[in-house]
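Hi L.,

You mentioned the student needs an example of a multi-chain input paired with its predicted structure. This one should do, with 667 residues in total across all chains.
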Amino acid sequence: MAKVFERPKSLTDKPFHYCPGCAHGIVHRLVAEVMDELGVQDSTIGVAPVGCAVFAYDYFNCDMHEASHGRAPAVATGIKRVHPDKVVFTYQGDGDLASIGLAEITHAATRGEKFTTIFINNAIYGMTGGQMAPTTLLDQVTTTSPYGRSGDREGYPIRISEMLSTLEGVAYIARVSVHDIKNITNAKRAIKKAFEVQLEGKGFALVEVLSTCPTNWGMDPIEAFKWLEENMIPYYPLGTFKEVK
Amino acid sequence: MAKVLMKGNEAIAEAAIQAGCRYFFGYPITPQNEIPAYMAKKLPKIGGTFIQAESEVSAINMVYGASGAGARVMTSSSSPGISLKQEGISYIAGAELPCMIVNIVRGGPGLGSIQPAQSDYFQATKGGGHGDYHMVVLAPATLQEAVNLVMEGFDIADQYRNPVMLLGDGMLGQMMEPVEFSAYEGRDLPPKTWATTGYDGSRQRNIINSLYIDPKALEEHVQKIYEKYKAIERDEVKVECYNCEGAEIIVAAYGTTSRIVKKVISMAKAEGIDVGLIRPITLWPFPYSTFSEWADREHVKAFLSVEMSMGQMVEDVRLGVDGKRPVYFYGRTGGMVPHPDAILEEIKRIRGDV
Amino acid sequence: MAKVIFDEERCKGCELCTTVCPKDIVVMAKDRINSKGYHPATVMEMDKCIGCAFCARICPDVVIEVEK
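Structure written out for the whole complex:
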């Protein structure tokens, strides 16, 4: 019998430190599978900043650069401008991209920087223990929205994909999820597309992946995917928001 | 007031509330997360405002605004976040505004680690931002002292219209100790007639600003600020001298490290070695004269600065000792904590030399 | 015939794989725990496996390999 499914080469052998059922692990594998399929493992440079994926340099089997919180798009810009022929991606969480790094991602997008961003939206800060993120939903309880997020006190959740898709320099933006097999398939397709857009030099590409945080949501992994489907997708509709032909 | 067992971060937050702080702007970063979480829970219940800003840069500028508007305001962070606040702190000092900034220091540089460290000493005391300015830097060694220093720190900030920093570390922030919030009567302070409260004609317009396009005017402004700093250096130094009388070696240490040194002092005594401790509580204004006076004493042969860094306060100790005695350094960094045995070993090595 | 191989030491017992198997044969091995203390996922009735890899594709820890 032949192997029909195995660990992608673009992942190292190191076990993930993520919590049980955390969607980071699924997305890491999808990105690595895409790198294998496009044959770009040896020409890819990944940028991971602060957040649960801060240890991504242990997991992606390619050159990696550890950025400070929120600054991955700036670091990636520096790398891509030095190596325009290489493949550059950032892998960022919602605190990193939508909070402290909102200026950096916005300007990288509007400059049309030719790198790919994988944006993990799990509506909370994971690594620091469950604080409110810019994508935390209304009424969601976190350690810094203990009474449930309210519009007039904590402000409203940000729809990053829609916002960035208004920018000229953007070539491709899609929002996907990984809460079931059908969506995992779509997510991989979108991630592959986002890398292909880079290879074709069309401009900035971003895939927003709705994800879970079982630990800080206080749910088991199966409940977490259910909660994602019932609560996050209505506010963060899936789909392609921009695609330059 | 009864004692209550509290985690350091939460005791610091409660002390700020008891000192009348009703505005807190922060951002998540380990190991200080309990401070914003505590404020998020408590402030809304007492008419206060908590905001998790989009970044530490934004948080310090929210502090800048609230302070300029006359409020008692605080922010907290840990090393990398404090680096992001440096520009804002320089503005706050330049505009002569009061605020409390809490740094629960962690291993550095860069992303570093999340364990305790003291490697932000230079940044705190020599000014991490641009231009001539100082923060008053308070370094507690116990949670009770942290509570007391926060409460007094707000008064110092208001009295001198200057930012005040509480310099803790990951251990102080995360450990629990019994603390008491006794009624702190506080200093009598002038009203904040300079605050932006709305120009209704009853006073001149209030402008919070640090721009002086005419260099002569800026120089005068900075020199005026430095008159304040002279007064602070004269009146606000806090230092503890422990077992220095008759001591052969005096160790300089602050915060968590000073507690370890007190253990070493009892270990040394058991071996007939007389060791003392000078513990700066205000890291700025630094107790230079205390070191100078003890350096004049015949029985004092040498000084040893022990820090959780590669050696930063040791430079100020040398300034204080002024060449009268040799000054050595021992430290661990990156989040590693010095072990009493290693410090005692160092003391014995120095005695061999001296 | 198809086969799934579980690297039991990597499993964190999240049970996501058990929710997607079209043949409903992926279960948690209640008779043992791995060195992290989790009951690892496993398949008892391997003969029913169709090698679709659904379990492998939802696994967050790349525990599962599939042969066909």
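You could point out the following to them. Helices of chain C lie at 54-58. Chain C has one helix and four strands.

Best wishes,
N.
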